[in-house]
Amino acid sequence: MKHLHAHPINILENTSKYLILLLLPLLRALATSIFVWSQDERWFYTWIAGAWFDLMILGIMLGLGIYQWFRYTFSFNDNGIYIQKGIFFLKKRYLAFAKLTAVSFELPWYYRPIKVVHLTADTDGGSSVHPDFSITIHQSIAERILSYSKEPFVQVNQIKRGYIPSNFYVAIFSLLTSNSITGVLYISTAISQVGNIFGQDIGERIVNNFTRIANILAFGLPPAAAILGYTILGCWLISFSINLVKHLRFSVSREGKVVEINAGIFSKRRFSIATERINSLTIRQSLMSKLFGFFSVFIHCTGYGKAKNELSVLMPSGEETELKTNLLMLIPEIPITSRQIKPKLVNLSRFLIPPFTGILCVIGGGLLGIHFLPIFSTTIICFMLIIGIPFVWWFIVKFYSFFFTGIGVSQDVITIFYTSGFRIMTSSLPKNKITKIETSQTLFQITTKCCDVTFYSYAEGQKKQKVVNMNLPEVKKLLNLTDFDLHLEPDKRFTLWKA
């Protein structure tokens, strides 16, 4: 087999994060030299005298990038990929195509003219942070590797079935999965880079101008509350736009035992996932999407959703009838089982106490602030509303959670119904993917025979999902657990069942 290298553009990728730091002092030195040139005819020698160290560092970084590119080689045939890499110590690795969980490649918009893609491949036995195989290569080579990776899971002449959601559903999905934190990170990074390139004065002017605009558009609100509100709204809009662009032209298809997902309008992304490696299938909703009847479906599989800001989505959004039809077509191995046990009415308060406590703390803290700082009473009330509304929303979600929470069991899967934060989750786990099930009780739960049930699965690390405040005897009977835990000690966990 012929040993291949990454595309030469990978040399710049290896050093790009350092190059910007080195170019800035060079540009400043050049600007200084131009100023000196007007007074000194030996300006070129002056520039060289001040920039020699920067040029030397630049040469070292570029040399390391070339050496790293040269030392990273790979080859492949119809059985797997052979990898050799290492700057000082050579490491060899072999990835069998039959053991891969997911293969993906991304065609960034800036690489489209030269048809270069980022290819990654993963197995269940690798790192939870980095892919087992990652390289930048020409698209034609990536297509060949992707084709070989499917062969162990696809028989000849198998029918390929597909699903393409409407742009409306993609917009709904982007709406539900966007958050202000992502926008804050993008904005703060952008302002920081602008300040580094053009000087800190520019970054400060951007912030000051935004503050003035927020004050003008305050409409009677305290300036601090207006700035906070517009910041959250602006950051959310940025996050929404990024999600929308990433998931437009979304499509998913099933061929044999492979699910293939395509997405992206500028930077195109493509994923090939072995269905037998999927650890769980999860339906997510918010309270608003629940009211309007929209569902989003995610899968947990090593290598999919691993990259930064990547979501492991199978179906962006859809209504219940469409959801059931397409899930049966795409992932029939992991059905959704109906709920068979649910919490008892006596445990309703256990769902409501945490958010209710948060509401009381916000009200109490606000009243104390108004009492001791009456001059800021209007601002304090605004912040009470900003902080208190999420707790009220959480209270509503937890109240609904009491009627939604439960567990169902079929021959091949266990389906759990629970809430996580503000999200309403229905997760179906194949029994052969569950490593263990645990119950835990607190002092207060013992009196009503109440327990929390945690389901563990393993793939590049441990993943757990918890169903709270379930009746212990019903859990034991439904899951066919043993009797040794009849006298659970408070706050102590026991392994009840292993796959």
Q: What is the global morphology? A: globular
Q: Percent range for helical residues?
A: 40-55%
Oligomer: single chain
The SS-based structural class is: alpha+beta
Number of strands: 21
Strand order of the main beta sheet, please? 7-6-5-11-10-9-8
Biggest beta sheet summary = 7 strands, antiparallel
Total number of helical segments?
Answer: 13
Question: What is the typical, i.e. mean, pLDDT?
Answer: 81
| Sequence stretches where pLDDT stays below 50 over 5 or more residues | 180-207, 213-220, 483-499
Key descriptive features of the protein:
499 residues; alpha+beta; six-stranded antiparallel sheet; 21 strands; disordered C terminus
Short description:
The protein is an alpha+beta fold. The chain has helices at 9-37, 43-71, 139-150, 167-177, 180-198, 200-216, 223-247, 287-292, 320-330, 348-372, 377-404, 443-446, 472-478, and strands spanning 4-5, 73-76, 80-85, 91-96, 102-107, 116-122, 133-138, 160-163, 251-255, 258-263, 268-274, 280-285, 295-300, 313-318, 406-409, 413-420, 423-430, 434-440, 450-458, 462-471, 494-498.
Protein architecture, described:
This protein is 45% helix and 26% strand. It has 499 residues and is α+β, with helices and mostly antiparallel strands. The strands form four sheets. The protein has a seven-stranded antiparallel β-sheet, sandwiched between helices. The protein has a six-stranded antiparallel β-sheet with strand order 14-13-12-17-16-15. A four-stranded antiparallel β-sheet has the order 1-2-3-4. It has helices spanning 9-37, 43-71, 139-150, 167-177, 180-198, 200-216, 223-247, 287-292, 320-330, 348-372, 377-404, 443-446, 472-478, and strands at residues 4-5, 73-76, 80-85, 91-96, 102-107, 116-122, 133-138, 160-163, 251-255, 258-263, 268-274, 280-285, 295-300, 313-318, 406-409, 413-420, 423-430, 434-440, 450-458, 462-471, 494-498.
